[in-house]
Structures are given as structure tokens and as C-alpha cells.
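ok trying again, last paste got cut off:
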Amino acid sequence: QVQLDESGGGLVQAGGSLRLSCAASGRTFSSYTVGWFRQAPGKEREFVARISWTTNTYYADSVKGRFTISRDDKKNTVYLQMNSVKPEDTAVYYCAAVGGILANRNLYQTAAYDYWGQGTQVTVSA
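nice, full thing came through this time. structure:
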């Protein structure tokens, strides 16, 4: 089992920055792929970014060039640095993790992930 705990959300003005953290406990985190997803009111949860255990990174087009995902396996933590935020970035942000064999898993979709945090609210004011 892996427990995930997000933090760092809050209220920020458009154009500002925020760093989210996803701290893991329960198992060695270094072999897991970790993703960030977000869910705005009335919308489905959507992919934001992910990082593999080899530190390959992938981003949604809507955040590419503004957000950066990184990991510190010594701290069992994955980060999402959010720069130049926009009001449309307002959502609850969730981190998720999956380990083991990833063949046939679409890592852009929520169903591919086995473990989820409780979410952290990010609100961007205009």
C-alpha cells in the first residue's frame, strides 16, 4: 500500500506561482510512476502531468511550458511547480501513483493509477 498526501494548494493571483507537493508513505516510492490530475467543478478529472521512475516527464498541452513536475525519491515526494497560473487552472489537484508492470495502461487516464491522495484546492483569481 502507498499513502499519498498532497499539500501546497491555496489562493493565488493570475500570473503567480504555486508549488504542490505529494508526499508518499508506506512503500518505496522510487519505482512508481506518479501523476498529477485536476478536477474543476462540474468537470471530469483530467491529466496534468506525470513523471516516471526514470524521471521522464509528460504534460497536458494546457500546462506545457508553465508547469514542471519533479521528484525527490530521498524525500519520497513529487512536486508540481505551477508558474504563470491562469483562472482556468482553478481545480482540486490530486496526485496518483502506480507501480509494477505498466503495459496496456494508458497513463493519461485516471483508471491507470492504483493510489490517490485526497486532493488540494488551487484557486486562481483573475
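cool. Residues 12 and 124 are 5 Å apart (CA to CA). The mean pLDDT is 94.
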